Amino acid sequence: MISLSLLVLAAWPFGLALARPAPPLSPHLVVAGVPQYVLDYGMWQIDERPKASMLMLTSNNAAPLVYMDTKEVYFPSDLGAQVANTHPDINLTELPNPPSPLVLENLDALNAVGNGGKDVYLTSNIDVTTSPSWLEGVAPDSTGKTNQATSAAVITTDHGSGLVDAFYMYFYAYNQGNTVLGQELGDHIGDWEHNMVRFQDGVPQTVWYSQHSNGQAFTYKAVEKLGIRPVAYSARGSHANYAITGKHDHTIPDVNLPDGLLVDNTSKGLLWDPTLSSFFYNFHPADSTFESINGSPVQAMNFKGKWGDQQYAKDDKRQPPPFFGFYKYVGGPTGPYDKQLNRSKVCPDNGILCIVRDKLGP
Distance (Å, rounded) from C-alpha 348 to C-alpha 167? Predict the structure, then answer.
């Protein structure tokens, strides 16, 4: 979602469902040839995974568990369904001869047009204002799985010398923006959010929570956990990730106040385990390439375009008049390749101070 800080700063003077219980953790496992920390931190249902994925699970040792908000209506979504329900546009005009059918396995073919793919938008086949059902995603079941929906991508970056970053990328078909002074702003089709866990010699050190244009970092020791797995709270509609429940005013990056005008809401609703329905990849910093694990479609990670509609024009009947220069419907997001997978700090390098908190708080 876009940042609305300027709007809120200008306007400031004027202005439960029960959570499902967490699935039980698997018992302690010892598997010859698999590093023990992989099993200790990633042992949840590890015995059910294909043997070929065991090396990948060096990235999965402290995989976060995500609580959806109790009032959430836009759940994690299948990546393939996003492509199936969209078509590629450039400058609000349908691409004349796209691959047919367009699927995850050939998605990066769109990089051949539109400024290396960067000008391509995956545009909904159905008018968003009619609330097509595919935008609702798939609610996690009692085990935390989004059934028949591959709704996440786990990507590991090995920096060498025992330093490994594991990115847990979460996909939603729709982002519902915040309501400011009665105006809903920043809605868009397609939504990528993520946690990142940084490891040193197999031991989790810090956890990053993506939030709109920035996010928050905490020590692994400080964050809430189920067993040894970090917990994230996905904000209602916007899906920004937080370390605690409650209200989060995100007007100022890195400063989450308990209330305000630009507010995300989090609570303990349905519990989602992204690793149960995920693609898996290694990212190689030397040449910025992805390596597929267990047949995961690397073409989807290579796609340089946007995973939703382009911002609708002012004269588009779907677009309400702008509010202090901000719009209800904005452009869709770029994919995981654009999330600084080779970052030096646990925070992305965006000019904002990287604060690693050692205590939980807003």
Answer: 12
DSSP 334: B
User: How many angstroms separate the CA atoms of 164 and 38, rounded?
Assistant: 13
Dist. CA 194–CA 169, nearest whole Å? 4
The number of CA neighbours under 13 Å toward the Cβ of 322 is: 11
State the number of CA atoms in the 13 A half-sphere of 23 facing the CB. Answer: 20
For residue range 190-220, list pLDDT tens digits in order.
Answer: 999 999 999 999 899 999 999 998 999 999 9
d(CA 137, CA 73): 8
pLDDT bin (cut points 50, 70, 90) of residue 291 is very high
> 48 lies in a domain?
no
- How do residues 93-103 score in pLDDT, each as one tens digit? 999 999 999 99
Q: What is the CA radius of gyration of the chain?
A: 20
Per-residue pLDDT tens digits for 106-155: 999 999 999 999 999 999 999 999 999 999 999 999 999 999 999 999 99
Query: Between 57 and 105, whose confidence is greater?
Result: 105
3-class state of residue 26 by DSSP: coil
The CA distance from 249 to 355, in Å, is: 18
Helix (H) or strand (E) holding 302: helix 298-302
Query: Does residue 305 lie within any of the structural domains?
Result: yes
CB 92 within 8 A of CB 114: no
Task: Please name the residue that has the structure tokens 């109790």.
Answer: 70
**The total number of structural domains that make up the chain:** 1
Q: Is 91 exposed, middle or buried (0-12, 13-18, 19+ CB in 10 A)?
A: exposed
Q: In terms of residue numbers, what domain contains 92?
A: 5-29+64-357
* Domain membership flag for residue 118: yes
Structure tokens at 106: 């050939």
